[in-house]
Design a protein that fits this description.
Layout (H helix, E strand, L loop, with lengths): L9 H10 L6 H7 L5 H15 L3 E4 L2 E4 L6 E10 L2 E6 L13 E3 L18 E9 L2 E10 L7 E6 L5 E5 L8 E5 L8 E6 L8 E8 L7 H8 L8 H11 L9 E2 L6 E4 L8 E7 L5 E8 L1 H4 L5 H9 L3 E2 L4 E2 L4 H7 L7 E11 L5 E12 L2 E4 H9 L5 H20 L9 E5 L5 E6 L4 H23 L6 E3 L5 H13 L12 H9 L4 H14 L4 E3 L23 H13 L19 H5 L1 H31 L6 E10 L2 E6 L3 E7 L8 E4 L4 E4 L4 E4 L3 E10 L4 E6 L15 E2 L28 E2 L1
Parallel strand pairs: 5-7, 10-12, 13-20, 14-21, 28-33, 29-34
Antiparallel strand pairs: 1-2, 3-4, 3-6, 4-5, 6-7, 8-9, 8-11, 9-10, 11-12, 15-16, 16-19, 17-18, 19-20, 22-23, 24-25, 26-27, 26-32, 27-28, 29-30, 30-31, 31-35, 32-33
Helix pairs in contact: 4-17, 10-11, 11-15, 12-14, 13-14
Amino acid sequence: MNRPAGMPSREQVLEFIQTSSKPAGKREIAKAFGLKGQEKIGLKKLLKDMAEEGLIDGKKTAYQQMGGVPKVTVLRVVAIEDGEPIAEPENWSPDAPGKPPRIVVKEMKGRGGKRAPALKRGDRVLSRTEEQESGLVAFPMKKLPARTEGMMGVVEIDKAGKAWLAPVDKRIRQSAPIKDVGEAEAGQLVIAERMGNSERAGLKVIEVIGDPLAPKSFSLIAIAKHGIPQTFPDTVHEEAERAASLTLSEEKREDLRHLPIVAIDPADARDHDDAIWAEPDGQGGFNALVAIADVSFYVRPGSALDKEARKRGNSVYFPDRVVPMLPEILSADVCSLREDEDRAAMACHLHISGEGKITKFRFTRAIVRIHHNIPYEDAQAAVDAGKPPEYLANLWDAWKALADARDKREPLNLDLPERRVVLNDAGQIEEIAVRERLDAHRVVEDFMIAANVAAAKALEAKTAPVVYRVHETPSREKLIALRDYMETLDKKLALGQVIKPALFNAMLSDVTEEADKAQVMEAVLRTQMQAYYGPSNSGHFGLALDSYAHFTSPIRRYADLLIHRSLVDAYKLEQPKPSGSLPDASGLSEKDRASLQEIADQISQTERRAMEAERDTIDRYVAAWLSGRVGENFETRITGVQGFGFFATIVGLGGDGLVPVSTLGGEYFRHDEAAQTLTGVDTGMTYASGDRVQLKLAEANALTGALKFEPVDEDGNPIEQRGRRSYDKRRGSGGPKKGKFKTGKRGRPGNIRHQGRRK
């Protein structure tokens, strides 16, 4: 484009900056207008004046209009909407007018033009931005390392008056210097970020959270650390209010209000997704019903509610609060299946044979009225008393048939305890214990599995889209590692056979010693693949099912909502009347159909985020509960062995803690990676994964959730530590041999009898 020579006006400079396809700095502007000599000095003054007047900002190498976005800049992904990453400029000037612009980020290419892993919330990308008719679009050039990862902590002031950030992430061991403490005070929990790209750059406090040890603070730490959206935009609240006022069509919905349907849930349940009913069919089988909250009636594709639910992916449950996927007016009220209130439901009708097989199924949109909301414990007590109400007796009888079929199917049978934290009204811990596993839990679980299978098969029958819950067969690499481990126990695992869950169940049943069984269970658990969501079916290995989808929890899982929408379309279920303020259709949108893989990837990520946040929070509560018992001895079980020590958890309570190898006495220990053991080369004392050992609690850090243990002798007394210890990572055992051990300060061979095992 030819431009007039000579000093440009302010309007001409702005036009050039806005239309340039490359970063527009002083040099580019001077070249575009043919400026030389003294004219360049005049341009420098003009640009300075324009910056002071608030017309432009940026650096001399790249200017942009004030409030605009540089052509090449660092963006931070803040949301995933309709499968597309949405980003904001990382360094948005606080003086710029309005909020930071939201920019659609196009697919990122990997090496050789291959598709790179999908961007997720919090990712930083160096991008080239471009103004298009639809708005700003970013083309990623390079993914950058996380800038604020692990930058949550407590402000500490040392004797010299210097501020430090003590981490609340137990994976981070060192405090970091704070250069800009802002308004934060010593002892406060804060979020900080680096002031530069270097690891040595100091930190700047960007948010003050408050007292880290205040009641109910541990969940707030997890929410902030994992970037979990906690508040709903006003538009979402307003839309939820409108959705809640929708009326149900009694003419078009199946009326099931006459059935004594019951919802069996935890006593402290915040929402009620599901309810069940069954009765004998007179021929040895059962007619059954699984009623699920009809969330798709209220949350329509493309609505603000839908976009926010997809961004969250799932609800996140903490001991003191829930961060819901949907606003409370829907999640805890209108959608929740509450006693003696009419509710919209997706009804899964099942016929269960006497052998527990599902021989028929159909899906309808219905109106239900829950007969009772019953806690698990109360339902179990009623059955155990011998004269339960007929509706419970029928449910238990139908479940026994389902349980028989499940036993014949032989799903993976791992007894994994679940920790339960009980708080008082002030948010203080009253009790931490392993949640009791009742038949009532199994009843509900088996009914839900049956409905989930029926949903997947019903959609397959119509060749309709399915978001499967996939749990793949263990990889060959994991199986080889398991085979090598089993060889250390003088047991064989033949890899030539078809790998089924029954194989692992048999391995566990063949082990009689409790310590060995715990070891094998840990090994089997490490062998399993992580479950995920996806539109391609690879079966569910753990449940020994060919087709499986999540249908039963649409209040708290977006995957289930997608299954409901697909069922609505495939079986032409009742569509809502036009409301004027909400989208009319409640099935899958064309846009969703075309991007199921991207949606599945995203909700798999949010699920993992929720699991990590929930686990971190429980660990902090356990550490807080134990902080007053430092110095006491506990019975623990070894959960993992490394060359630097082993990890153990307190039996019946949980909480993982490290036992450094340097604390194990006065001998060298050899690490056998395949056998998951540490073995003393002098005494042959062995610490193995799964062993039960007495340990002293040395530290309990409520901020990080980290525990630290120290070994004791058989009388419960501490083992003397004799300086640095060395270990050999090579496999096998035996006495010390020249050249096989790392150099270290070695004391006399210890005569103390450890609580481990001798080989």
